[in-house]
Structure formats: C-alpha cells, structure tokens
Amino acid sequence: xxxxxxxxxxxxIEQLRRAFGRTGPAVVRGIGDDAxxxxxxxxxxxxxxxxxxxxxxxxxxxxxxxxxxxxxxxIANLSDxxxxxxxxxxxxxxxxxxxSCTAPHILRLYKxxxxxxxxxxxxxxxxxxxxxxxxxFLSLTVTGSIPxxxxxxxxxxxxxxxxxxxxxxxxxLAGLTLLSRRHRRSxxxxxxxxxxxxxxxxxxxxxxxxxxxxxxxxxxxxxxxxDLSDGLSGDLRHLCEHSRVGAEIDATALPLSxxxxxxxxSSGTDxxxxxxxxxxxYELLFTVPPAKQRMLQRVxxxxxxxxxxxxxxxxxxxxxxxxxxTGRVRLLPVTSYVHFHDASPE
Amino acid sequence: xxxxxxxxxxxxIEQLRRAFGRTGPAVVRGIGDDAxxxxxxxxxxxxxxxxxxxxxxxxxxxxxxxxxxxxxxxIANLSDxxxxxxxxxxxxxxxxxxxSCTAPHILRLYKxxxxxxxxxxxxxxxxxxxxxxxxxFLSLTVTGSIPxxxxxxxxxxxxxxxxxxxxxxxxxLAGLTLLSRRHRRSxxxxxxxxxxxxxxxxxxxxxxxxxxxxxxxxxxxxxxxxDLSDGLSGDLRHLCEHSRVGAEIDATALPLSxxxxxxxxSSGTDxxxxxxxxxxxYELLFTVPPAKQRMLQRVxxxxxxxxxxxxxxxxxxxxxxxxxxTGRVRLLPVTSYVHFHDASPE
Lengths: 346, 346
Prior knowledge:
Two copies of one chain form a homodimer.
Chain A: H1 9-20, E1 27-29, E2 36-38, E3 44-54, H2 66-83, E4 87-97, H3 103-117, E5 123-131, E6 137-147, E7 162-166, H4 171-179, H5 193-204, H6 210-218, E8 224-227, H7 232-243, E9 246-250, H8 258-267, H9 271-277, E10 284-288, H10 293-303, E11 307-314, E12 320-323, E13 329-331, H11 340-343
Parallel strand pairs in A: 4-5, 9-12
Antiparallel strand pairs in A: 1-2, 3-6, 4-6, 7-10, 7-11, 8-10, 9-11, 12-13
Helix pairs in contact in A: 2-3, 2-6, 4-5, 5-8
C-alpha cells in the first residue's frame, strides 16, 4: 500500500478506516500498515478473485453514479465468490482517480462497494489510491473461504446433468441499452416506466447470489457452477469447455422477466437473443445430477430464489445447441458480451 | 475474473496459465475458474497487500520497458510483504491496456512481474484484463503468510530503540532524475557511466528485502518495521505516528552509495536531502531494542545485507529531528515522495 500525494490520501485513508475498517479476532491488522493480516478460518480453503472496472469501458460517468460503480465492482467480485459456493470475507480496493474526482467522490465509490458487501459482513482490509491523468480505474480484490473440498468449479458437469439458472436473463443488457444513446424509439407499445425502471435497476444494481451459492455447495446439489458475467452463451461455453461436455438449451424454458418481454416487443428485438447474449446479469448457471433435482427444487423454494431448468448436458461431440421455439435445433451462436464502450461507434 | 473481448483474452489467459500458473497441494485451483482456491498453511496468518501503477504517474513508457513496469509493481508489493516479516506466496494481476498495447506487451509485463516473484516461488493465481481507452494501468495484489503473531508492524517502536535501514538511500530518486528530462547539465565533475547505470538500475530494478524481513521477524530482532516507498522522511513519520514516538536521525550516519555522492557533487544537490526525500528505494526501516543490537549485526553480516544505524527513537514530544553534519539539530522536513508526473511541469 503505497502512498500517493494527491487526493489528500492520508486523511482519506483515515476516513476509510473509520467508516469501513474492522479489526477483531480474524482481522489482526487492517487498513494502515504495509499489509493487512488476517487469521484464516480453520478447516477451510481460501478463495480469491479480482475484477477491474475502467471508465468508458465498464461504466459511463454520465449514466452511473459513484455508488453505482462501486456497487457493480463489488457484485462482480461477490458473484465470482458465489459461483465457487464460498463465503466472501475481505476486500482490497485500488482506485486511480482523475483530477475531476474529489475525495467525496472517492468516498461515495467506497460507499457503493461497502454497501454491497455489508449483507455478507465483508471487511475492507486494504487498498491503494493514486492520481490518474485520464479516466477512473477501480480494481477490487475479494477473498473468501469455503470448507475444504466443497468448492463448485467449472469442470464438474457430467452428461445427463440438468442445466439450471437463477433469476431471469437479459435484463441487464436491456437496462444498459435503455440508458445508452443507442436506444431507439419504440416500434411497438411503449415501455411502462416501472418496466423501464426494473431493467435499468438490473443493470445498475445487480445482486450476487452469495447465500444460494453457499447452499448449493454445502448440500452438494450442483456438479459445476459459473456466474453469468459474459452472458449465457459465453459462460455456458466456458463451463462446457472446462467440463469437456456439450449442452442443449431449450429456448422456450429461458426465464424472462415480464419487463424484458415488454422491452423486446417495444424495441422489436428477440427476447431469446437478449437472454443468450446479455451480460452482467450475475445470475448463477449450474448443473445438477438428475437424482438431486427434487431436493434442489425444495431448497430453491425455501430460499425464495427462482431457479429454472433450461437444458441438459450432452456429450462433447453434440456441441452447444439451442432448441428454438419452433422446435428447430441450431448451434448456439458464438458471442461474448461486449461492454458498451466496445459496442458504441467511436 | 470477468472476461473482456479485446486483447484476445481467452488465448492470453491460456498463455499466462501455461507460462506462470502453478497448481499443487497448496493451489487447488489457479487461473481459469471464477476464483482461485488455495489451502492456507497451518499455524500461519495471512498477509495481503495491493499496489496500483498508473501510466504517467508511476512510470513513463518512454523510459521504462514493460518488464521494468512489471518488475516495479511486483517489488512494491513484495516489499510490503517483506516489511511485515512475511513470506510472499500468491499474486493476482489486473491490467487495463490501451489500444497501443498488444498481447506480447502484456506478456512482457507479466514476465517482469513473475521474474521478480520467482526467487520467492510466488504463484500467479488470477487476475483480470481489460481494454483501456487511455493509458496503461496495473493493479497487483500479493498474499503471503507468517507464523501466527510474528508480524512486524508499524506500531511497535519504543523510546530508546535504535533506528536501522538496509542498503543505501536516495539512489532511486537520483536514477529517476537522470532518466527524466528534468536532469540538467553537470555543475561539477561529470558522472561516470557506471555510476549513472547503478543509479538508473536502482530506480528501474529495485529489490525487496524479503528474506531479511523474514529473518528479522523470525528472530524477533525488530520492534517495528516499514518499507521505504515514500522516502525516509515520509515513512519514518508513518512509523513514529503509529508507534506514538519521536525520533532523532543522524545525517552523518545516513548510508549513501558512492554513486549517489558523485551524483550529488555533479548536480550540485545535497546528498542528505536526496536520502531523506527519495522514494521507491524499497529499503527496510526498522527499530531494534538496544539489547538486540549485537545479534542484529551478526545476522546482517551473515545475510550479506548492509544495515546501518541512523538514529534513535525519542519520546513523542521530541518530534522528528535530524542532527546535521554541522551538529545543529533541526526538525525533519515534512515531505512526501512525489512521483515524476506530479513533479513535472504540466
């Protein structure tokens, strides 16, 4: 943790320590020394992940608040921890701030991060701040833990396992499009303001399925798991490549929110395409052996989380295919979620 | 670990995994899943630190190679781990690369990081890459471990303890000035090319005193420790504030390299001021109870590392003072190391 002179860093670090730092039996040394010291929980493995958010690649300061950006960075990491079935515990935050960002902006960024982390009692234990000549950069590392051997990886899917997702798909992409200047006028019925708000909120304030991830690993219900940051099409591909299997998805089964259906009608786009390509939903995609399906349904009901069976794992030679609403089976398109900057005309 | 489409990230991650990844009993899951999984070593606490390097703030692509930048990022983190007396173990690397950076550049950046980490067998376990519209950003998180209770913190210095530093001071600042356009023509004898090379190398390729830090903690020789990233004047202030003490430094005792003395003569600058203000030397500053001084000298001789007693810890009311070569005692100037960008005329 080096010190940079701009941003009145010493005062800022002290403010952050007071607002978000925590010491106790587990955090022996938090913010303020050369490094943080923590006592690892017994009988558990450590889980570590890191995510980077770049201005004009992952967010646009004209449409996202500093809290939104912090929230999104936290969720990207918490969702990675959730996808292992682990418990998030500590965060390290690095920020490079352009001259236009003041200390109150930085505090709002931290507030967004820590508000998203609060339900899981994640403690801020360190970080770094720097001036940036151009553009805001945010790098977040989150660590967690899981009982030894219990983690859910990408490589455990077996032929015959059922493919499940949490929540609904494509909402965040629709929300992003509504926020961006790319959104054209309605071609059909205009979107209700509640639908518009729902979709934009799904983009701005996604949630991470941390508790459900832990339950799936604790009860050993899932054979493989990944979170949907790139979109179903891209992330299913990762899961299948790691597991050396193929998959068949049923387009009619894809869980779509009523707001997404309304958006698709209003904009003349295909809701299935939105569900396959839309990234940053941060839903969990996981595979379940058929014998465990009933138990999964019970657990999901109790947790109040929607889970939907969207297909089945096939042999590798089958490839990745989607059964369309017409009954026709076609290859899953190769797409990777493109952040708004890459998609915008430059 | 999200995926971004630029940089051909999937191929790059696979290359990185093959070149630098490592799995074994400790690394259960490295690069390629949602998060890494490691088994924490028994009876040890975890140490975590993170550092951010920003183009045109911490480095200049006109004078630093990609390997240099990677090296510097690794040393900044390894030195933080060293300053706790801990053993570095794992690294997570996030890079935001501008359009001018290609995959080979990024691999060279990783090579610089991993070459600096290799002596300590630090494994690369994760990271994130992203496009950057403007400027190169590098965020590195390093974790390590230390026997429970053995860490050397900033707050352990006691009145009467002796103040020590490793190596020599001010060299990196002289090297930076020689590299930058701020260097004016010699006023005295010109610098020999070997002296010039030595100083530039100290700026470009600093080392972290990882093994000595571990020895100081294992033998409980130091009461407090910090690494010199901001410069002696700034970092001594941190150590004394955390320990609630004052300090008296002897200017005649400050360890200066012959190259720094030659540089000072040639440029007409005060070598003591360079030693007090120069940042990024990554030497260790630590305090030693008088009873342990002889043992420290023996240990340092055996390790082949130069350690120098430069002063003594005084009560808080004494403040921070430096005894000049003339015998006059003055207040230590309040300075914080300023990176070249901040110091350059804009």
